[in-house]
Amino acid sequence: MDLEKMSVQEIRQHYLVNHLPASGQTMARLQRDPRQGVRAIYRILEKRRRAQKQKHIRMRSLLHFEELLWGAGIQYVAGVDEVGIGPLAGPVVAAAVIFPPHTFIDGIDDSKKLNPTQRADLREQILKHAVAHSIGVVDVEEVDRLNVYHAGLEAMRRAVLGLTPEPQHILVDAREIPGLHIPQNKFDKGDGINFSIAAASILAKTYRDGLMDQFDLQFPQYGFNSHKGYPTKQHQMALEKYGPCTIHRSSFPFVGEVCGKFGATFYQLKASLLAASSPAALKRAEDHFRATGTQLTEHEVRKLRICCKRLWSQMSSRQNPGRRRVTF
Fold first, then answer.
1. I need a surface site. Which of 19, 74, 152, 153 has the fewest CB within 10 A?
2. Is residue 249 part of a domain?
3. Distance CA 72, CA 3 (A)
4. Do 79 and 158 lie in a common domain?
């Protein structure tokens, strides 16, 4: 095209509206054009080019291990991740997903970095492109029996076993899944650096959020539809007011504290700490806690230490704004 004979509007229509590709030579001519409007078009195109380059780099990074395995002839590569380790209520959920070789879905990322609308849209795309996907659920009773760490592993194991076809290789976030004969690679923070694991995290998160929305209809006083069972201030206040329901994890220290399952010494010490109205009174209560700490369990000691830190911080903020004292 003879750019010199084209109007600014025609150039804009070709390259910005119709998205015609601009060669390196064309970009150089746009950059040197004496018209301010044409140079503005160049800057927009250059910004697009850089964004596309970054997208390509990110895609290659996310797909690095999948491409290695696909290139070695391993067709069925499964990404696996779990969600729901931290909440005070609800099940642990894991997902496993297999994509055809060389599949990429723009926008895939760690589910925690995405908002609900983005996760819902990406879930539909994942299900559309996937060869297979599976969900593994470990309910609250099993979480309390197994402990939450092993519940996460069991949820991932169930998700993998639910895949058809069976995967030839597994990419998993942080931990290796026991009880499987399939080769595995684990990645620290894999849901943020690996495509298949990130996709699995989105499937697991959207599925678990849907379950918690259903529980909210059954137990509306707790607000499960907003916090999904995580220990937000709203959730803790509701738990203290109403007590636990059937989907609360009784093995978790905070739930046990609310249920009165801690020892009498713990509640006496906590009451004396909360009643302290001055630094001197808080110091005496803290010293008493230190002296009687051997009568407490590890969880009880940890909870009271957190309470002390919070109370000292609040008292210091009231008396000396900007300063904070941390004990222990």
1. 19
2. no
3. 48
4. yes
